[in-house]
Amino acid sequence: MTLRYSYTLFAPVYDAFVAPFTSGARRRSLASLREGAPGEVLLVGIGSGLDVPLLPRGPRYTGLDLTPAMLARARRKAVATGLDIRLDVGDARQLPYGDAAFDVVVLHLILAVTPHPERVLAEAARVLRPGGRTLIFDKFLRPGQQAPLRRSISPLLGILATRTDVVFEQVLAQAPGLEVASDRPALAGGWFRHIELRKTEP
Questions:
Q1: Label partner for 74 (CA 20 to 30 A): which of 4, 44, 48, 116?
Q2: Per the confidence metrics, is the pTM higher than 0.70?
Q3: Helix 68-81 vs helix 3-30: crossing angle, to nearest 10
């Protein structure tokens, strides 16, 4: 089963399961978009658009997702809220945008979903302008953390929806030019984290 197929099946019920658990954490992550007035913001893996009603006015937004069924829901939220946002179908591992095209890249619940998080983060770095920021909200294991249950169920969950064994520090090590600006617990005793990265290299 591919992720596009599984998320097409999940699309009608995704918001009901995910929104109540994540809305507060999403809001806290996106609040930083009010700082520094970023011009161009890319939301990778925008999914059904749970972030859309939380986005401040001002920046120019682009959203990308692998699944047209999820994007259709994001489009309806954009219309309902009056947000002007471009929505594209595409693969987070090979973004269809030029180098240094965005001031901020938002990665909410995508790095632990994709089978290749290091490629997704490297692509985020590529499309960021020097000094740009990446806002991450996701679940990660800490380096050396045992978490036997999370590791054991990850192969099955990864096929269906999301991985539970991703170690962020290992992913970051494969995306040169990004440095951690902040790293804070978000949910579930710190399993979910708010991480902000900055691009340091041209």
A1: 116
A2: yes
A3: 30
Q: Which of 1-5, 12-16, 24-28 has the highest mean pLDDT?
A: 24-28
Q: Scanning the structure block, which residue is given the tokens 């520090």? A: 169
Neighbours of 165 (CB within 10 A): 18
Dihedral of the CA atoms 13, 19, 70, 53 (nearest 10)? 140
Q: How far apart are CA 1 and CA 33, in angstroms?
A: 36
CA distance 47 to 67: 7
Residue 81 neighbours by CB under 8 Å, 6+ apart: 52, 53
Q: What is the pLDDT of residues 136-145, one digit of tens each?
A: 999 998 887 7
Number of domains observed in the structure of the chain: 1
CATH number for 102: 3.40.50.150
